């Protein structure tokens, strides 16, 4: 199963069989590392064209790139009218230009942040026999652990294992969650839901709408929590932790650890690091919020580098009802369109959007383009 250190694919290469054999171990990327793999298997090799003009190991170290940085916004004082106006202005500017920002004084205690990081790590590092019981690609399961949701459809697998669970609007029974991270997962999710409602208020105001607008149309109704585990990689130049993509959510809140590796595309089409800030959370606009804001807010492509250091732990909380069977239609908000700024997207349900996103996989293309109104 170990591939030679080359990107040239032999004519007899049977990717489908290798993917299937890897998936059937139910041990994920961590299983490869635990087995002492010294070379990255070919199914993880990133085709150069997948990142277009960007090279896999292109970090933002040149002077031209490093003059830009993701905004860090302090939410302290958001209840004070004067402070809130300043915060709303910063959130609006970051959402329109970067699509990404970090937040400090967000209200989630450091102990809870540390607890969920350790809980995610504990899940992936528990006894393999226990962990295997959660390995599935069945969307009806309360918690799904696997390697890459698009393992069978993507051009290349990512060096990452993940668990996913819907924590709202219909949270799983506590006994259906892994014991090793059950309590902190429930606590963290409650805290993130509270934070999300505040963020949607600020984003509503930044759009010139009533503070309750985005919450009223149920942008904060659904919450998917994903625990990511990026093992140390022996050949990080050949693969990625997560391929270039934009999120299929309204909004995403990410807790990353000290290792870093998250990068976003800046206005000059360069990869820019999102450096870990102790106690801060990363917030990014998702495709669905770009759609309903009629391109006012930007859902920006991002990726995660593979790293010789590891494991890297991150927790991504997606505000979306995903593939759940809700029928709400979402299109550009009528208050934001006019004769001079007509709707740029057709209406869709979240489920239809997610279905298209999942079927497409992380192939380096935008899911939003499928919903564009052609003129």
TrEMBL record:
Necessary cofactors: Fe cation
A Pfam family matched in the record: DIOX_N
Record-annotated Fe2OG dioxygenase domain positions: 221-322
InterPro entries: DIOX_N, IPNS-like_FE2OG_OXY, IPNS-like_sf, Oxoglu/Fe-dep_dioxygenase_dom
Gene Ontology molecular function, alphabetical: dioxygenase activity; metal ion binding
SUPFAM superfamilies with a match to the protein in the record: Clavaminate synthase-like
Superkingdom of source: Eukaryota
Keyword Iron on entry: yes
Record keywords: Iron, Metal-binding, Oxidoreductase
Family: Belongs to the iron/ascorbate-dependent oxidoreductase family.
Record protein name field: Fe2OG dioxygenase domain-containing protein
């Amino acid at each position: 199963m170990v591939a030679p250190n080359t990107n040239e694919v032999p004519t007899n290469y049977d990717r489908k069989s290798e993917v299937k054999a890897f998936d059937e171990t139910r041990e994920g990327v961590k299983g490869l590392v635990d087995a002492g793999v010294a070379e990255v298997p070919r199914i993880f090799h990133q085709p150069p064209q997948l990142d277009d003009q960007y090279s896999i190991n292109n970090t933002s170290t040149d002077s031209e790139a490093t003059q830009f940085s993701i905004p860090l916004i302090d939410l302290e004082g958001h209840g004070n009218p004067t402070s809130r106006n300043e915060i709303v202005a910063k959130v609006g500017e970051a959402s329109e230009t970067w699509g990404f920002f970090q937040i400090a004084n967000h209200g989630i205690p450091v102990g809870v942040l540390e607890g969920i990081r350790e809980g995610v790590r504990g899940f992936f590092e528990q006894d393999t026999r226990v962990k295997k019981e959660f390995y599935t690609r069945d969307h009806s399961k309360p918690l799904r652990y696997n390697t890459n949701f698009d393992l069978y459809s993507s051009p290349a697998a990512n060096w990452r294992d993940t668990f996913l669970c819907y924590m709202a609007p219909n949270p799983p029974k506590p006994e259906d969650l892994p014991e090793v991270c059950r309590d902190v997962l429930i606590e963290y999710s409650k805290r993130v839901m509270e934070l999300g409602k505040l963020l949607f208020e600020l984003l509503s105001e930044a759009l010139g709408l009533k503070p309750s607008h985005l919450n009223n149309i149920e942008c904060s109704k659904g919450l998917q929590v994903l625990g990511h585990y990026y093992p140390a990689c022996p050949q990080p130049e050949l693969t990625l932790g997560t391929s270039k993509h934009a999120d299929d959510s309204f909004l995403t809140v990410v807790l990353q650890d000290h290792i870093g590796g998250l990068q976003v595309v800046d206005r000059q089409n360069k990869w820019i690091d999102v450096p870990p800030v102790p106690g801060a959370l990363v917030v990014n606009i998702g495709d669905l919020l770009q759609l309903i804001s009629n391109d006012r807010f930007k859902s920006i492509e991002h990726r995660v580098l593979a790293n010789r250091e590891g494991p890297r732990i991150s927790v991504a909380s997606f505000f979306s009802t995903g593939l759940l069977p809700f029928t709400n239609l979402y299109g550009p908000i009528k208050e934001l369109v006019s004769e001079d700024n007509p709707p740029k997207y057709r209406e869709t349900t979240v489920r239809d959007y997610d279905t298209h996103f999942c079927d497409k996989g992380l192939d380096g293309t935008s899911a939003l383009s499928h919903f564009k109104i052609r003129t």
